[in-house]
Each structure stands twice: as C-alpha cells, then as structure tokens.
Amino acid sequence: MVVEGQKVGVLEAMKTFNVVESDRAGRIVQIAFDDHAAVQSGDVLFVLEDLG
Asked: Are 45 and 31 in contact (CB under 8 A)?
C-alpha cells in the first residue's frame, strides 16, 4: 500500500540519484524490474491498483 507522494524507489543515472514517488494512492500489484536493472525513460516501473 502506498499513499500519493510516497517514495517507492530510487533511480541512479550518471552518479545522480533520483527519487521515484507514487503519483496516487493504491496498492502495488507488480514490480516490473529487478534491482539494478537498466531502465529507460517511459518504462513502467510499478503497476498500481487504485483503492476503491
């Protein structure tokens, strides 16, 4: 379960760390990548199920 604005991950790009925050409240039902996997802009990182 996450709330809007909650930190859900950290991405590292060129030695810079960027916090990933939830854009809405819900329940994370799937994590699309393993730790340390390479991702690109626009990739879906988490699947979030809305509450209610």
From this structure: yes
Cα–Cα distance, 17 to 26 (Å, whole number): 24
**H, E, C per residue of the chain:** CECCCCEEEEEEECCEEEEEECCCCEEEEEECCCCCCCCCCCCCCEEEECCC
Q: What is the pTM of this model?
A: 0.77
pLDDT tens, 1-52?
Answer: 999 999 999 999 999 999 999 999 999 999 999 999 999 999 999 999 998 7
* Phi then psi dihedrals of residue 11, to 5 deg: -110, 140
What are 49's strand-pairing partners?
27
CB-CB contact of 8 with 20 (8 Å): yes
